[in-house]
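Minutes, structural biology subgroup

Action item carried over from last meeting: produce the structure token record for TIGR03987 family protein (Lentilactobacillus buchneri subsp. silagei CD034). EB confirmed the sequence was re-checked against the source entry. Recorded below for completeness.
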Amino acid sequence: MDIKLIVAIITITMALVFYTIGVFSERKSDALKLRHLLLFGLGLVFDTTGTTIMSSIANTSGAATPVLHLATGLAAIALMAFHFLWAGYVLWLGSEKSKRNFHKFSLLVWLFWLIPYVAGLVMGMSN
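Output recorded by EB:
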């Protein structure tokens, strides 16, 4: 197995770990906190890094990436970036109520992010 592929798999899996811990620890704590913002940021960085590496591999191999996977992957990164920025806004300028309810948005972003993650996993296992 190519080292770039191994690094990409590890970084995208780290994104899953950090983002999942962030989303569910936020939900459990009943309020958005700085540690959650940091976990969301780590998830975003690892996902962007892993996706960039995977894209590089696909471009050099000439393999065609399904358009739906490409679209949902890019949308997930954009949504994660928006989620991170919005979490920062809510953390510093939001009301206590918005800090307590932010976990609902976090869960939706996480669920959407799982679509390209699982699709990539299935595509990788089928090759």
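Discussion: The chain is about 90% helix and 0% strand.
Next step: EB to file the record with the rest of the batch.
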